[in-house]
Amino acid sequence: MDNGESSYRRFLAGDDAGLYEMICTYRAGLILYLNSFVQDLHTAEDLAEDTFAEIAVKTPKFSGKSSFKTWLYAIARNLTAKYLRKHRKPGIVPLESQEHLSDEENLEHNYIRTEQKQAVHQALHRLKPEYRQVLYLSFFEGFTNAEAAVIMKKTNRQIESLLYNAKKALKAELERSGFDYEE
Question: Which domain CATH number covers 78?
Fold first, then answer.
C-alpha cells in the first residue's frame, strides 16, 4: 500500500494528520509538476493547494486502479487544465527573474541543487509544454510510462513517442546552451 494511500484512508477515517502527511510528502513535487504547465511558481503553489483542498473537501474515492501518487497528480492536472481554460494567457515569469525574491521560499532552488541540474531545468523550460510534462513525470517524479499515460490522458504508445521526442529535444537544447555531459 502506497504511503499516500494509507494517509488518505486515515484522513477519511477522521485523522487530520493523514492529510498533513500527504501534503508533506507530495507538495514540492506536485508544485514543480504544475509549474511545468503554468510557468509561474506562485500559481503552481496555489494550484497544489487547491488540489489538496479538493481532496480534503470533496473526498473523492480512490479506487486503487493506479498508485495514489498517480491519482493525486491526475486530479492536480485536471484542476490545472480548468485553470488554464479560464486564464487563456498565463503570465510566464522565467526562473531567472525570480532571483530578487529573496524573502520567499524558492522551492525550485532547494529541489534542484547542482549547477548541472539547474542547466537541465532551464533547458526544460524552453521545451514544448507537453515535453516538459512527460519529462517531469518520468524523471523528476519517477512515474512509469503507464502512470504518466493516465495522468496526461494519453496511450502508452503516445507516452513512449513523447518521451523519445522530448529527450531528443532536451539534448538539442542542452547542446545549444553549451552543456557539458559528465563522463
Answer: 1.10.1740.10
**In which domain, by residue range, is 25 found?**
1-88
Rounded to an integer, what distance in angstroms lies between the CA atom of residue 134 and that of residue 47? 19
The answer to whether position 161 is within a domain reads yes
Q: What is the pLDDT of residues 97-148, one digit of tens each?
A: 555 554 445 555 555 455 677 777 788 888 999 999 998 899 888 899 999 9
Rounded Cα distance, 37 and 13, in Å: 33
Rounded Cα distance, 68 and 71, in Å? 5
Is the residue at 98 inside a domain? no
DSSP codes of every residue in 98-129: GTT-TTS--HHHHHS-SHHHHHHHHHHTTS-H
Q: What is the model's pTM?
A: 0.69
C-alpha angle 48-68-35 in degrees, rounded to nearest 5? 25
- Integer Cα distance of 117 and 113 in angstroms: 7
